Amino acid sequence: MSGNRPQKPATKLVHAGRRSSEYHGVVNPPVLHASTILFETLADLEKAGSSAPGKVTYGRHGTPTRFLLEEAVAELEGGFGTLCVSSGVAAITNAILAFVKPGDHILVTDSTYYPTRNLCNTFLKRFGVETEYYDPAIGGDIAGLIRDNTALIWCESPGSLTFEIQDIPAISAAAHARGVKVLLDNTWASPMLCRPFEMGVDVSVQAGTKYIVGHSDVMLGTITTATEEDLLTIKKQIIISGDAVGPDDCYLAQRGLRTLGVRLRQHHESGLKVAQWLQTRPEVKRVLHPALPDDPGHAIWKRDFIGASGLFSFILKPVTKPQLASMVDHMDLFGMGFSWGGFESLILPSDPKNIRTATKWDEDGQLIRLHIGLEDTDDLIADLEAGFARLEMI
Hints:
Enzyme class: lyase
Strand order of the largest sheet: 1-7-6-5-4-2-3
Structural class: alpha/beta
GO molecular function: cysteine-S-conjugate beta-lyase activity; pyridoxal phosphate binding
Protein name: Cystathionine beta-lyase
Number of strands: 12
Number of domains: 2
EC number: 4.4.1.8
Helix content: 25-40%
Shape: globular
Order of helices and strands: HHHEHEHEEHEHEEHHHEHEHEEEH
CATH architecture of the largest domain: 3-Layer(aba) Sandwich
CATH superfamily of the largest domain: Type I PLP-dependent aspartate aminotransferase-like (Major domain)
Largest sheet: 7 strands, mixed
């Protein structure tokens, strides 16, 4: 903030979490490497256990390099505060574990990121927490699934691989009527495209590895809360888990954050152009992109989101495995790999069938997820067109 004048998100991206005046006018926050922190007096040492935000007590608990990144993310998301951890999965794990105990029941969208499902089906199950998966399109009807022992509802909008948009305000209203926390994986949109706390979310989680970092070279997770109470609850869980993110990674995330707005505008424009082109292709059965007017979630996306990122999927008409391999094995610009959010475009064949339980994925065509990077879209389209040509030759 500058005085009492509210700033636009693009301006906040440039200035939040910098505090140059505290570091001799240096534009970017310094990288402070530390494990041991020395205290001048016994009184200072005894205060080291304080949970006050921004207090430097031990390297694992953070230094200003991390604290300034957390300050910036919290301001952008509109939350009370943010905690950074070592990966997106670490953010998911610590956020959920902070609010559950043996005997609890949680509700998780059936379209969730696979590592979230893996956590629920393995560790949480052994820990005595029951997970019930729900249809991502359930909206306010989720009230009928809430039990007396329901601790939280996990949302992800749009969903991984299949990109269903959830009615988060309706889910939040139903949850809060029963005193249940709502947690949202906001990685696809980032704070620039979706404002989770304005929709009633209690905790927003991101894999900062993706769009915040933006350069495919850092693992990072962020957890932002609406209240101080929830922030302290999650901070205690992170301390117990021993999770920590290094200062160099925080520094690179700060650098990536500054260009998040301009990158996302390009991802949106390029992604939509490629998605619209794919809709014209005879090889394509359906494109799964919430910004397309005929997408089932488009109306809610238009209501709740400012834009779209570069990640979406499409479904091929039925092909053989050799045809699929011929297409994806020889792409010039689309790399084949996990993750997304960087400057480079990616292609990933996937099959949601085996990871759905509350809803049925019965598409007979091959699902392919794309991340549209920052290359020229004409070149990306030409690469995909050549891939389709190879598919037809087998």
